[in-house]
Design brief:
With 186 residues, the protein is α+β, with helices and mostly antiparallel strands. It has four helices and nine strands, in the order αααβββββββββα. InterPro entries: FixH.
Amino acid sequence: MSKQSKSAKPWYKHIWPWVLMAGPIFVVIASVAMFFVAKEHMTDLVSDDYYKDGKHIDIELRRDEEAVKRHIQVQVLVSPDADAAKVFVSGDFDPKAPLNLVLLHPTKKADDQVVALKAASPDNSKMRAEYDAVFKPLPHANHWYVRVEDQAGIWRVEEKWIVSQGNAINLTAMNKLFAPENKASE
C-alpha cells in the first residue's frame, strides 16, 4: 500500500461534503416550517364554489333592496371589551320577529359570529326596538363587517366597522345601490 491511501480519510470525515449538504438540508427544514406556519395562519379569501356564490349575490341584493323599502336603520353600540352590544333598530319591520347580529372578520372565517338578538324591553314599538347581544370577545382586527338581519332572510343592513373610530356603528340600507339613475347626464 502506498502512503497516500493509508492517510486518506473517509468522505464523512471531511468538512466539504457537510458544507455542501447544509444548504439543501436547511431549505428542506425551512420549507416544512413555512408549511406549518402557512397552514396555521391561512386566510379564507378564496371561495371554493364561485358559481354558488354568484347565485347568492342576487339573493343578497334583494335583501338589501327590501331594507331600503322598509327604511330600516340600525345602530350598534359595542362594549369596550368587545363581548356585548346594544342594538337599536328602526323602520318598518316586525319587532317580534327574531333578528341576528352577524360579526364578520375580514380574513378569518373561523372568527365570524352569528348572535341571536334578545329584546331588551318587552314594549318594543313597531318603529323602534332595542336589543341586547352577548358574544365571544372579538379578536383584534383593524375592521369588521357588522350585519343585522332578520332570521327569515327577508332584509339585512350591513356596514364596515373601523375599530379605531369608536364602538358605535350606524347601519343603513344601501340606498346608493338602488337609487334611480341620474337622467340629467343623458
